[in-house]
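Forum: Protein Structure Q&A
Topic: Joint prediction for protein chains with partners

I've read a bunch of threads here and the consensus seems to be that you should model interacting components together rather than docking separate models afterwards. I'd like to see that in practice. Below is the full input, 419 residues plus whatever partners are listed. Could one of the regulars post the assembled result?
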Amino acid sequence: MPTGGATILHADLDAFYASVEQLLNPALRGRPVAVGGGPTGGVVLAASYEAKRFGVSGGMPGWRAARLCPELLFVRGHFAEYQQLGDAVMAIFGDVTPLVERISIDEAFLDVSGATHLFGPAAAIGRDIRARVRAEVGLPISVGAARTKHLAKIASQVAKPDGLVVVEPGTEREFLDPLPVSLVWGVGPVTQARLADLGVRTIGDLAQTPSRAVERLLGHAVGSKLSAMARDDDARRIVTARHAGSVGAQSALGRRAPDPETIRSVLAHLAERVARRLRDKGRAGRTVTVRVRFAGLRSVTRSRTLAQPVATTLTLTEIAERLTQAALADQPSGTEITLLAISVSNLAEQRVLQLELDLEPDDPWRPGSPTGAARRAVDGSLDTIRHRFGNDAAGYLPALMGDLRSVPDAFRELAEHDL
DNA sequence: TCTGGGGTCCTAGGACCC
DNA sequence: TCTGGGGTCCTAGGACCC
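Posted by a regular:
Agreed with the consensus. Here's the joint model:
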């Protein structure tokens, strides 16, 4: 268990994408701004605080946001700038302590227990970080400080916007108890509703409910974790580097009939993205999962675990096609699809020339011709061209997918970036 | 007129092995 | 002779987070 003072910080940039837009364009400052989407479609990726006051939030369809806030200004994202400014903020954290756990482009945990003798207590460090980010990067950031990661994260949420909240050891209960359970990490709308059925609305309510009752309601893992968190009995350490456990890509399609040509071309595009990223990481995976979403947001997954890991574009495409056919086979004819996704998990380190040596000859999932060696050679050539001339320079399906790119590719690249 | 794209973790049932 | 129990892996689905 952590001991001593409040030595864990959670620092979280406020309305990050929207704040960057306001930084880049002074005309947007003080006004309701939505990044992404539009009055006629698409989704809002981020909303400024001025827009949030109207109920606009990230993930919301553009037409709904426009209805909630008629003066809302929709802007296109500046994705390269988001990455660059996020990195600049992380560099400031790195000046304080090497123990930084970046958990997304715009937030991180810091363990400052070794820094307090240099920079003073957590409250002073939090103030300094906020001042430096404001002065050197130009962005508002909120900071929470506490004994544990989870509590620090709740504190930063309470601090928003543009604030600092320090939970001194010994004051945890009075801080936590009145807060809504939805602030607990892992409590989303479904869990919140289930807890409300038990009469649990605040973290204090949750802490006083027997673990057994919570576990019966939510399952063992979620229940016991939640109970522990509510009692502030949480000892997760800072993790400075982490390997991704899966690599995936998806594409929303609107509503369309699942005809073979559409499926083939979308899957080929997705497989190429996934396989390329796996190869760039020097990894490959044995489990391939396909997700098909239907009108009405219902979705189905089909997966297959292979004897050997794959990272080859054509092989992944073929396996994904079979899985998609399997998923569609169970659906009534005439069912329309709205999204296709491919994910590869069960990842292992792979040296380039060792991939896919041999699948079982009688394995029905064994890819057809050309051989694995030929496929790897093609992928290797394309990778070389891409690395030299950029991602759009080469591929199996040049320029075919233009109409399906509803989301800017820059946003995809941001989302897939290794933090 | 139902909403993007990237992930993580958990559960439950079944197969299979010892 | 068809009964026990535990462990591991696989598959499908779901909740959640940024």
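The first helix of chain A runs from residue 16 to 24.
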